[in-house]
Amino acid sequence: MGEDLGRVLVVDDDEVIRQLIAVNLTLEGFEVATATDGQDCLDRVRDVMPDVITLDVMMPRLDGWVTASRLRGEEDTSHIKVVLITARAQEDDRRRGLGIGVDAYLTKPFDPAELIQVVRDLAATARA
Q1: Buried/exposed 33-56: b ≥16 CB within 10 Å, e otherwise
Q2: What is the spatial distance between Cα 43 and Cα 116, in angstroms, rounded to a whole number?
Q3: Each residue's pLDDT tens digit, 30-42
Q4: Cα 21–Cα 89–Cα 20 angle in degrees, nearest 5
Q5: Which residue spans within the chain are E strands per DSSP?
Q6: Which run of H or E residues covers position 89?
Q7: Confidence (pTM)
């Protein structure tokens, strides 16, 4: 333990999923902050300054697409690694995510071990 793997901002409007992701990443050794939707994410991102953001797509106020676009469009957040997590796995959605510049794409229901590996890889890249 004690290994500093990086900081992750977990964004999901579903409290159960948000907590599931946060607990798994915390146990793995990440420093974790959470946000309840896209607007909350944008409000908090500069305070948290995460290496990686896990971002649900379907959320009230501001969805994951718009949130990811805004993160990419701001100079001080454009470098943050973004993992989109969605129940929608259509190829159009994947292309849209890649077009925005998200770094990874996971489909619900996701395997927590896969999520941890994706976040670990992205955080290592972000901190390299």
Answers
A1: bbbbbbbbbbebbeebebbbbbbb
A2: 25
A3: 999 999 999 999 9
A4: 10
A5: 7-11, 31-35, 52-56, 81-86, 104-107
A6: none
A7: 0.93
Tally DSSP H helices, then E strands, for the chain: 5, 5
Q: Containing H/E element for 94?
A: helix 91-100
Alpha-carbon distance 120 to 59, whole Å?
A: 25
CA 101 from centre of chain: 13
Q: Model confidence over 45-60: pLDDT tens digits? A: 999 999 999 999 998 8
| Tens digits of residue pLDDT in 83-113 | 999 887 778 888 888 889 999 989 888 899 9
